[in-house]
């Protein structure tokens, strides 16, 4: 999967509220994965932004959170999840916190194109169209309250360039086969 953003962020643990530095990677499919270090061998956790994220807050919006020692409150970043939990992060600078917020929000709203021409999006009521109601069983693994829509591209849709190449290939094949049809039989 394509990488959207990566870098070091401080993460506050959920139990003891201690700050730990992790290497974070945001992928195009909406996975925010954090690792022990930048080698990305030991994964510490994952947040599925597309399915789990409700909101992203930065700076002064992060109430009741004390930043790590030596960091400003403006560097804070809180990912609010649909289940009511929060993941609190701290960037190296205020600009980096804003950049992470923008990247996470973009990943949250961008549809994912899957192999085979499928496009997954969210936000459409499942019963707004009869065909969409049939897709509900396929997404039982998703977070509650999340609606997914799959848009399949027409496999027979042809662009202008493809049409021109197809006509050219057909004409060349027809000309070649046509010359064989008119060739007298010598044997």
From TrEMBL:
CDD domains: PH_evt
Keywords associated with the record: Membrane, Transmembrane, Transmembrane helix
GO cellular component: membrane
Subcellular location, record wording: Membrane
InterPro entries tied to this protein: PH-like_dom_sf, PH_domain, PLEKHB1/2
GO biological process: regulation of cell differentiation
Protein name, entry field: PKHB1 protein
Originating species: Aramus guarauna (Limpkin)
Gene behind this protein: Plekhb1
């Amino acid at each position: 999967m394509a990488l959207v953003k990566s870098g070091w962020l401080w993460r506050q643990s959920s139990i003891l509220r201690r700050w730990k530095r992790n290497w974070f990677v945001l992928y195009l499919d909406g996975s925010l994965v954090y690792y022990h270090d930048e080698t990305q061998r030991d994964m510490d956790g994952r947040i599925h932004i597309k399915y789990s994220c409700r909101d992203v807050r930065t700076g002064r919006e992060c109430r009741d959170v004390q930043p790590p020692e030596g960091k400003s409150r403006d560097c804070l970043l809180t990912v609010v999840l649909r289940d009511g939990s929060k993941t609190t992060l701290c960037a190296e600078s205020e600009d980096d916190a804003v950049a992470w917020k923008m990247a996470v929000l973009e990943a949250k709203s961008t549809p994912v194109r899957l192999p085979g021409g499928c496009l997954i999006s969210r936000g459409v009521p499942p019963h707004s169209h009869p065909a969409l109601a049939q897709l509900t069983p396929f997404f039982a693994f998703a977070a509650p309250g999340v609606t997914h829509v799959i848009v399949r591209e027409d496999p027979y849709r042809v662009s202008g360039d493809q049409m021109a190449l197809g006509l050219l290939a057909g004409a060349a094949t027809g000309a070649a086969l046509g010359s064989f049809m008119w060739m007298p039989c010598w044997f």
